[in-house]
Amino acid sequence: MAPLSSSFIAIISISIVGFYMQFGDCNNGRRVVDNVESDITGFSVPLEHSFEVDDVPRFRARGNIQLKAGRENGVFLSQALLSEKDRSLLKDVAAVDGLYRIRVPRVSLQSDRQTDRQLEGYLTAFIRACSLVESHLSDVITLHTDVSGYLIGVSIVTVPSACRGAEVEDEVDLEIFNTTIGVMAPVNAPAPETALYIEKMEQEMDKKGKPQEQKSFFAKYWYLILGGAVFLMATSSAQPPAGGAREQS
Amino acid sequence: MAGQLAGFTVSLCLLGFTVAVFEDQVGKFDWRQQFVGEVQFALFDTHSQASKKLLVATEKNIFASLNSRTGELFWRHVDKMGPEGHIDMLLMHGQDAVVVVGNGRLLRSWETTVGGLNWETVLDTGSFQSAAFIGLQDLVKYVAVLKKSAISLHYLSNGHQKWVENLPESDTVQYQTVYSGGNGQVFVLGVVPNSHIVIVEYNIEDGEIMKQNSVAAPWMSSLKSSCVVVGIGVLLCVDPTTESIYTLPLQSEEQTKMTPILLQTLGLEMASGFQPVLMSTQPHPARPPLSEFFLQLGPDHHILLQLKDGHISALRDFNPSYLVSFATTGEKTVAAVMSPKNETVSIHPRNACSINLFSADTGRRLLDTTIIYYMDPNGGKPTKLYVHAFLKKDDSVGYRVLVQTEDLVLNFLQQPGRVVWTREEALADVVTMEMVDLPLTGTQAELEGEFGKKADGLLPMVLKRLSSQLILLQAWLSHLWKLFYDARKPRSHVKNEVTIETLSRDEFNLQKMMVMVTASGKLFGIDSKSGAVLWKKYLENVQPNSVFKLMVQRTTAHFPHPPQCTLLIKDKDTGLGSLYVFNPIFGKKSHISVPALPRPVLQSLLLPLMDQDYAKVLLLIDDQYKVTAFPSTKNVLQQLQEMASSIFFYLVDASQGRLSGFRLRKDLSTELIWEVVIPTEVQKIVGVKGKRANEHVHSQGRVMGDRSVLYKYLNPNLLAVVTESTDSHQERSFVGIFLIDGVTGRIVHEAVQRKARGPVHFVHSENWVVYVYWNTKSRRNEFSVLELFEGMELYNSTVFSSLDRPHPPQVLQQSYIFPSHISTLEATLTEKGITSRHLLVGLPSGAIMSLPKMFLDPRRPEVGSDQSREENLIPYSPEMMIRTEWFINYNQTVSRVRGIYTAPSGLESTCLVVAYGLDIYQTRVYPSKQFDVLKDDYDYVLISSVLLGLFFATMISKRLAEVKLLNRAWR
């Protein structure tokens, strides 16, 4: 069980605490226009979030996911602090049990060409805003890819994820996202394990098989030979009475 | 290698899983019904008078022989599905039936008494047009097969080809008919649409073209529907535009023009917009057809005409008449006509029809030949009429008829209207089904009712209780009396018929009502114990390609409210849906007003919420993501408003690979909350399955060898999504499995099975998913099982919420080789989920295998250890065996099994199973054996005598002890 369970998730997650203060303003100012930026080491994808009291999604930038093409663990998230306004808004949304949503554009993590990377539409996920507040902005974001490296889904959970109605002091706890981000690619499902099994069986056969082979012909079939001999003797001795019976009739 | 493995695994069968039936149990708890489907051709064996054979060839590619006295199958041949096995033509001569199969691919001759194959010939390629027997001098020796570009003649005795000839100008001329009058020629008739008719005459002996002619016919588009050969080689064609019949003698020397005869001159008028149909009869293939023929002028109007010396005269007008047919016995040919009984009433309502025989050559009605045919008010209109005529002792003609209706009922009737047998062929195509508990008996209901009503004070309550107890006593006494009465009668007479009135739940709820929905739009209520059809209902306006979803909105548990089922019928093309609400026990349509569904329905959702009448709430989501609730009473809407924020649903758009989640808003609109898109360029979604709502899981975890508990990940909202790669190359193709939470859209697990291809069958239950795929590299079928565990600790043991489960589950997976293809897969289901689970595997051979889930356990160790033995884990072996004692249907094979339905019974050990496909098979399975049932040979006498003995022994010894004590005290 143990090897299987450990191999189950190929997440190599790197937690980055959002200390990128200097990016804050500039991220807020940037809109969704240039989604995919690339540089020599990789490219980045905007992560957007939305939390509104009326529950109509209005997405705005939360940070940038930086991806290193071709490398499995090459994912970082740089994100800004929550502004004063957002903090109070988040608390308000949490109070009415609204949703906190995130979205990322549909991109390919594998493709080398920029034009192929981007597909139509977004992938969205949500949590209850209260759980984000109560977990003091500690969330786990996982990007899911398919076999060819396209992003197919995004998921977000907070730890802990229950809403117990705990009070949160906004200034300290609702400023910095404590995010763990990871990429999850599909695992290869195992095929029937035949090689090992045959090997095991052969070993067992070897153990059992050898003593049997060494038996000689007579040792194996002595009872048949004996039985045959007895039968022959019996039939030869039984003939005279049979003849006598025929005479009588 | 596989064989070697099979040998090895035999040694592994340490655990005795015997689920086979005993010989004396055969047919005791199970039944099978065999069907043939919609009849395409039906022929009676007129060879001998006493013959009971009726040959049918059906839409389902089945060629069968029915016993015309009982309706049972003599034999049945099930051919391949799809166009490859399609039966194009059925001809019968003497004891032999000749069948053309697969658009002219094969020509077969069957011996009809036992259904053995006489011979089979592979025909040249080319699309099939027509086939006919060719006779010469009163002997039928050949069969001609006409294809698009060639005609071939085969010997009837052995199938060998006599000759094959290409047809002239076959790229422009559409050859459609072959005809022979039995005098040495074969005529092939073709048409160039809207131009001319081509007549080619072949010599029977060598296939030489004797004559070739073309006759102008600019009005003609197709020969098949509008032309017949009548009399001594006269071609008759009907033209609806000019309302006239054209005649053309085939054998005359000068064939240049067709002679028109206006219908008006015969005093006939055609129904507007109706394509008239001609029908002639050729009683013997070696002789020319009769000169009498039918002309259908309107949907309910036929006329019997006669052609004599180039003139057409009307013999008899049948107006109204639904169906007509010719039949021949001996030298006599008769025409059977089905017409409404009450002639003044026109089309609606047609309740009774009368069938009469008319002499074909004069049109006179034959005396005493009326058969009254009563139409089923819950059925459809008759569509086909087959007549079996025979000569009676006094040389008059007697007959029986086979009537097929729209809802695929085969009725066999004889004079004066007795239904000899009925077959419900719609059941050959069951789409979906449900099992509903039977209602309580009157006395049980009386007791139940006592608790349902409001209390009206102490005294009335006491009286009520006493009266119901009296009723119970009375029922018990009458039951005893019945037992006593029955005991005196011989066994065979006791068999009591199940009728809709006597339906009541048995002690352990083993007998249920099976509600079956068929593709033709007919609903059935079948008693699960006997297989008797208790009610049926034909829904008339159902499109042939509709999708059905059957839901049980209210079970039988809420007396006095009747149980309620809802059928959602969705047109596949337009997506528009409609609801049909009915009582599943009696089949009656409910009078509840049904919401109109003006927009296409995307998803339906049966909530556990109930209205004040205990009907579960059904939500329907249309293409604008608006929600319609049914029932939509004030109470329901109020509940929905309260619950709105916790009602989530998902939509799957397989064409775009999009899965999206929605949440209900208070105003019954919805909001999109998550979206997962699986690019369709790489893989396409082939199946999405959640868990069954009535599934119970008894144990939260598994106790391991070291006494610790491994908790199961029991997410009721989990969806298993299976995809197949678009790339079908054997090295690159794969099958993808995604486990997605249906509420949050979180991808819990994703895996790819490399070098794999569909068709994928999968079952999703409890904490596991089992799927079957085809391994393209090793060319074999493989099973794979995924199990999900939370780990050694449970996150929140009291309640499961998808929104509050931060840690992803541990996923274990293992695969096995399976030595057969499979048709369908289902898991057993029991009342409380205590019984171990089995997988029911429908094999293409028709067997249904009950495979213990224990063999599909990803925790099976490679090498057995003490701990794994403690846990009862079987050491891993890569090959899964098929053991014949696992076949739950012993020799009762289910042809083309398409689905298996499982339902729990009142006994925890017992699961009811229905397998459906071409046949229907019902049985019970006991995955953990009958642990809650005393065995049949349980020794009641011994146990009770021992108990009594002990009782008396204690009494006596007590008395003795007392005496002894007393004596001691006196001492």
UniProtKB/TrEMBL annotation, chain A:
<keyword id="KW-0812">Transmembrane</keyword>
<feature type="transmembrane region" description="Helical">
    <location>
        <begin position="6"/>
        <end position="23"/>
    </location>
</feature>
<dbReference type="GO" id="GO:0072546">
    <property type="term" value="C:EMC complex"/>
</dbReference>
<comment type="subunit">
    <text>Component of the ER membrane protein complex (EMC).</text>
</comment>
<comment type="similarity">
    <text>Belongs to the EMC10 family.</text>
</comment>
<dbReference type="Pfam" id="PF21203">
    <property type="entry name" value="ECM10"/>
</dbReference>
<keyword id="KW-0472">Membrane</keyword>
<protein>
    <recommendedName>
        <fullName>ER membrane protein complex subunit 10</fullName>
    </recommendedName>
</protein>
<keyword id="KW-0256">Endoplasmic reticulum</keyword>
<keyword id="KW-0732">Signal</keyword>
<feature type="transmembrane region" description="Helical">
    <location>
        <begin position="217"/>
        <end position="234"/>
    </location>
</feature>
<keyword id="KW-1133">Transmembrane helix</keyword>
TrEMBL record, chain B:
<dbReference type="GO" id="GO:0072546">
    <property type="term" value="C:EMC complex"/>
</dbReference>
<dbReference type="InterPro" id="IPR058545">
    <property type="entry name" value="Beta-prop_EMC1_1st"/>
</dbReference>
<dbReference type="GO" id="GO:0034975">
    <property type="term" value="P:protein folding in endoplasmic reticulum"/>
</dbReference>
<protein>
    <recommendedName>
        <fullName>ER membrane protein complex subunit 1</fullName>
    </recommendedName>
</protein>
<comment type="subunit">
    <text>Component of the ER membrane protein complex (EMC).</text>
</comment>
<keyword id="KW-1133">Transmembrane helix</keyword>
<keyword id="KW-0472">Membrane</keyword>
<keyword id="KW-0812">Transmembrane</keyword>
<dbReference type="Pfam" id="PF07774">
    <property type="entry name" value="EMC1_C"/>
</dbReference>
<feature type="domain" description="ER membrane protein complex subunit 1 C-terminal">
    <location>
        <begin position="765"/>
        <end position="970"/>
    </location>
</feature>
<dbReference type="InterPro" id="IPR011047">
    <property type="entry name" value="Quinoprotein_ADH-like_sf"/>
</dbReference>
<keyword id="KW-0325">Glycoprotein</keyword>
<dbReference type="InterPro" id="IPR026895">
    <property type="entry name" value="EMC1"/>
</dbReference>
<dbReference type="InterPro" id="IPR011678">
    <property type="entry name" value="EMC1_C"/>
</dbReference>
<keyword id="KW-0256">Endoplasmic reticulum</keyword>
<dbReference type="InterPro" id="IPR015943">
    <property type="entry name" value="WD40/YVTN_repeat-like_dom_sf"/>
</dbReference>
<dbReference type="Pfam" id="PF25293">
    <property type="entry name" value="Beta-prop_EMC1_N"/>
</dbReference>
<keyword id="KW-0732">Signal</keyword>
<comment type="similarity">
    <text>Belongs to the EMC1 family.</text>
</comment>
<feature type="domain" description="EMC1 first beta-propeller">
    <location>
        <begin position="20"/>
        <end position="425"/>
    </location>
</feature>
<feature type="signal peptide">
    <location>
        <begin position="1"/>
        <end position="20"/>
    </location>
</feature>
<keyword id="KW-1015">Disulfide bond</keyword>
